[in-house]
Amino acid sequence: MNKNAQKNVSRETLDIDDITALFEKDDVFMSSFSLLRHRISLNINVSNTSFILFWLRQAKKLGYLPLVIIESELDAESFYSDAISFFLSDAIGWIPLFDSSSSSLTGHSALENHLNRFFSKLYDGSLDLLISTEKVFKHPVIDKKTLAEKILHLRVGNEISFSSLGDTLSEMGYQRSELVEYCGEFTFRGGIADIYPFGQTYPLRIEFFGDTIDSIRRFNPNDQNTFELCDHGSIPPASFSVTQKKNA
Q1: CA-angle at 181, arms to 117 and 140, nearest 5°
Q2: Burial of 202 per CB tally in 10 Å (0-12, 13-18, 19+)
Q3: Which 3 state secondary structure label does DSSP give 216?
Q4: Do strands 129-132 and 92-94 pair parallel, antiparallel, or not at all (unpaired)?
């Protein structure tokens, strides 16, 4: 970094934004982004994670979507832990493999949950950084239009066949369970449907009056107590399952 960029900056004020401002004044640092406009790839021989994250932060600021490919899942987890100091955690998409020995990415509810978080952020423009492994990106992913068509929208006052809802959820890749605790699970008791949508933090408790949706609440899967009343809920599909059915 050039000497002029380092002048008159107190150590007490050196937070991430201050340091980023210094990098923006460095011609050598900024020239790397000029190279991106003319190259398919760019190799940066730096092992310092903080510098890489500053570079990725600047790339996002210039309109790029940073994608970080890491071979080891433990390294990816470590990189994610560092990245949340540079990017908002809600704006980071992290797609771990969970089981690198498996040849298939389908049928893994935790992976599909991460994928749906990624898709929702990517398609609504709120994704700032994506971290994953090369293996994930060798598989097809669901496109924006297909995902939108496959989402089941539930709203208070709407009518939906309660008796066939279970079959619909199963076709979307959800698993029936005695108690809803994890993403991708659903259960029925009386006129109530508990559904844990992929990509969402909390499951939904939907109360029916006949085939009419009477109320929708979010609940904590740890104690099963509801805590938030809402007027609608969206149930996305299991991403890879839907994509494979479409391509079959």
Answers
A1: 30
A2: middle
A3: strand
A4: parallel
Query: How is residue 66 written in tokens?
Result: 């940073």
pLDDT digits (tens, 9 = 90+) for 191-238: 999 999 998 889 999 999 999 999 999 999 999 999 999 999 999 988
Q: What is the pLDDT of residues 115-156, one digit of tens each?
A: 888 888 888 889 999 998 887 777 777 788 888 888 999 999
CB within 8 Å of 201: residues ≥ 6 apart = none
31: helix, strand or coil: helix
**CB contact at 8 A, 192 and 183:** no
Buried b (16+ CB within 10 A) or exposed e, 87-114: beeeebbbbbbeeeeeeebeebbebbbb
Residue 116 CB partners (closer than 8 Å, separation 6+): 197, 198, 199, 236, 238, 239
SS3 134: coil
Residue 77 has which token pair? 């987890």
Alpha carbon distances (Å) from 20 to 15, 81, 124, 135, 241: 9, 19, 26, 32, 41
Tokens (6 digits) for 233: 């809920």
pTM: 0.71
Q: Quick one: how far is CA 182 from the chain centroid? A: 16
Cβ neighbours of residue 204 closer than 8 Å, sequence gap 6 or more: 154, 194, 195, 196, 197, 216, 217, 218, 219, 233, 235
Residue showing tokens 């560092």: 82
Q: For residue 233, give the nearest of 186, 190, 167, 178 by alpha carbon.
A: 186
